[in-house]
TrEMBL record:
One of its GO terms (molecular function) is olfactory receptor activity. It comes from Apriona germarii (Mulberry longhorn beetle). Keywords: Membrane, Olfaction, Receptor, Sensory transduction, Transducer, Transmembrane, Transmembrane helix. The keyword Heme does not apply. The chain crosses the membrane at residues 18-35, 104-123, 171-190. One of its GO terms (biological process) is signal transduction. It is a multi-pass membrane protein. GO terms for cellular component: membrane. It is found in: Membrane. InterPro entries: 7tm6_olfct_rcpt (IPR004117). This is Odorant receptor 31.
Length: 220
């Protein structure tokens, strides 16, 4: 059982770190564009807290205190099961279940944030830039900045759908993603405190059981 938990934790850690570093890579790719377009004030203002929060999230996930807490929980598993005490087993099942909920929540929210960041880039490279190469639209502006960006009527529906989706993902990129990351930070910190409290209760109860066993042995 310990092996399963360790494997689950390693999988969660690797997936989360991959998502974080992909996000940082895409943010890094934006720096030259922003540097050459000093009028992009919104992007500059948005990226500073985003970089800070994302870097903080990576530090939290890689911090030794959290890793030690999880490893300590895993290490206690055999002793808890060997005790056979129903109350200890009940507490153990609660924190195991909650711990997996936290990991699942982390992966879902981080994936959502990653998609919201990366999707605008995909649309830029797959839709906008090919139109520019074929001489469609103004080179100085992206298609969603123009009311009628194409020369043929059959392009309008495709352009409208693509630009509407791009505009939506851009709004998410500017506003929703940093909010999601901040919520994730607060939620994770709160749940880790809960898990730490549960772990302390397990230790206290375990020590109490041991003391009672010693007293029974002495009396015998």
């Amino acid at each position: 059982m310990v092996t399963i938990n360790v494997t689950w934790y390693k999988l969660f850690k690797n997936v989360s770190h991959t998502i974080y570093f992909v996000l940082l890579a895409f943010l890094y790719l934006e720096i030259p564009y922003i540097w050459n377009n000093s009028d992009q004030i919104i992007k500059i203002v948005n990226m500073i807290p985003t970089f800070t929060v994302l870097a903080l999230k990576i530090c939290i996930c890689r911090s030794e205190s959290i890793a030690d807490l999880i490893c300590e929980m895993v290490a206690m598993e055999e002793n808890i099961k060997a005790s056979g005490d129903k109350k200890i087993l009940g507490i153990y099942k609660k924190y195991t279940k909650r711990g997996r909920y936290i990991q699942l929540y982390n992966i879902i929210v981080n994936t959502t944030v990653a998609v919201s960041y990366i999707t605008p880039y995909i649309f830029k490279y797959l839709i906008i830039y090919p139109f520019k190469e074929h001489g469609i639209g103004d080179e100085r502006k992206l298609p969603y900045h123009m009311w009628m960006p194409f020369n043929k009527a059959d392009h309008y529906l495709t352009a409208f759908a693509a630009n509407l989706y791009l505009l939506t993902t851009t709004i998410v990129y500017y506003f929703a993603a940093p909010v999601l990351i901040i919520i994730l930070l607060l939620y994770t910190s709160f749940r880790l405190k809960v898990l730490g409290y549960i772990l302390k209760n397990i230790k206290k109860y375990e020590n109490k059981v041991r003391e009672n066993q010693k007293d029974d042995t002495v009396e015998a």
